């Protein structure tokens, strides 16, 4: 009979074997996707989410266990970085991979592999007219003229990615929709195209359609035929309405439909979303929804989107908050939430516990006592909260004592959020905070920082603080501070700042008030 020690050893050996197999599978899968980097320009900065969605659309990622395709893809990225095939350039505020590039030598190898294996090609500045190529993928970069003619083997094309908006037009799109019937990825961000052909609905294999920052004004009804579509990116395009058939795209995972009104985010309403016609609840695979205009018909089915990770809600009224709260409770994986009230006087009442939430942005008035009473801001509910942004909250009481229990915060921003005169950061508060923004706080005249507060702070932004006339006492305690930005300050304040020995050795920038 086996002893307990023997059984434990056997279980450990089995676990080690499975871990080794998983690592080998990750390496193999990552290696298959790695040559895609050779299609992009030298020193191109890849963004994690952008590349993950592209890999998934290309079919490089397979499900593994209970992990989502996105989680598996991020594991492959980590594998490539660990093996020095990708160079990590930037992490976000809480340490997650954000931007990276290929090492020069490995990129040259990837380019060679792309050409030898007909993986794909890149076309740059002096290219135009007839294009010779035999690959399945085409990346267009810095083209100053339209590709007006067909190219060889157009029927074999599976992916087209444009990286900028230098081309005056893209007349080839209609031919692509007719000839490249097996097209998987159409990433046309930034192109000045105004229409897309009806024939796009015939691309039955299309999984990624990107029209971000394009001039397209209408999404045709034939879009409902794209039953395999995973990502639809209409961010900042000219499209204002979605066809009713959008709810037939049941495999859709990422939907971007937000339109930016004020790129500087100065006003209260800086962006608009779209209404989702009847049937929102059918899109049960959605992980990203940015942004939904709050409307009774849509909110009634919002809770059925239980796979959501990122949600932006606009034009929210106080009467909507109860139903929104009930819906949020169904989203066990929600990590990023942005809620924008319909106007400055609407009160946002979201008394829900969201233990998976990592990033929270609220744009609108908060009720008195909300920071103490809502589970959103409690340590038990906000233990995973890394980023908190409050806009136009109209708080009268100092918010810091209530928020100080959110000890894992790495980024904190107040913009027109507090109407009081003083903020004091006490010893031990916000130990992991790296970035602090204080913007447009009209009555704030004193900011005090005690020794031992914000011990990890790296960047401090003080913007348009009209009543602040002295350099914040205790700023010298921010030993790791790397960057200090003071915008819209008076010339008198600048004089005091230059006399302050506490900021010597710290990189800083300023702008003077008009």
From TrEMBL:
Q: Which residues form a coiled coil?
A: none
Q: SUPFAM superfamilies, per this entry?
A: L domain-like (SSF52058)
The record, for InterPro entries, names: Disease_R_plants (IPR044974), LRR_dom_sf (IPR032675), LRR_R13L4/SHOC2-like (IPR055414), WH-like_DNA-bd_sf (IPR036388), WHD_DRP (IPR058922)
Keywords, sorted A to Z:
Plant defense, Repeat
Protein name, UniProt field: Disease resistance protein RPM1
Q: Which Pfam families match?
A: LRR_14, WHD_DRP
Q: List the source organism.
A: Aegilops tauschii (Tausch's goatgrass)
Describe the location of the Disease resistance protein winged helix domain by residue ranges. 39-110
- All copies of domain Disease resistance R13L4/SHOC-2-like LRR, residue ranges: 181-463
Question: Can you cite a GO biological process for this protein?
Answer: innate immune response-activating signaling pathway
